[in-house]
Amino acid sequence: MPSRILVAYASKRGSTTEVAAAVARELERPGIAAEVIGIDSVLSLEPYDGLVIGAPVYTGKLFGDVASFVRRHINEIGRIPVAAFLTGIAPVYPKAGDPMQVIGLMTTALQPVTPVAVTMFAGKLDPSNQSFAERSLTKLLKVPVGDFRDWNAIAAWSRQLPDLMGLGEPKAADRK
Ligand SMILES: Cc1cc2nc3c(=O)[nH]c(=O)nc-3n(C[C@H](O)[C@H](O)[C@H](O)COP(=O)(O)O)c2cc1C
Question: Does the structure show a pLDDT above 80 at 170?
Fold first, then answer.
């Protein structure tokens, strides 16, 4: 039976959903069964051997209630390894905040779970997909618009997760 990893994501405008799908695609390469589900639609963690949580950052806060998700699944979440990623503009536009600080927010939201890995990826800002208030705010703050998602970086991070989660292929020397 292949290991099963759930990629649970929050997304306001859809770009983090696509990042979650890319993480899952990369996890499937070594034969892991990966599922992508919106964080509020996850019914149970029981079927899974590992969990990846992804969420964007809006005005310095995590979008999506990761802390409630952890509380809702507290009886199952301690049993499996957890990794997390954030998306946002900060990695390419430092004025939007310090990526390490929002990584800290994610780490806090995950407590009492200690993740095996947490990172922040550059996201996507599409003015045609924003509310008037959002467009005004990003314009006022001179936030660059565009798709800054680095698919190679997302794939590279995802590729190391099975090993970090202890779900990687056994090495030839251990396979006796
Ligand atoms: C109104 C607004 C506020 C934002 N605030 C932040 C922020 O504080 N820090 C950051 O890194 N990115 C910020 N972003 C960028 C988003 O995190 C980025 O666009 C992300 O890819 C959106 O993900 P989604 O499409 O899944 O909702 C902001 C974007 C908007 C439109």
Answer: no
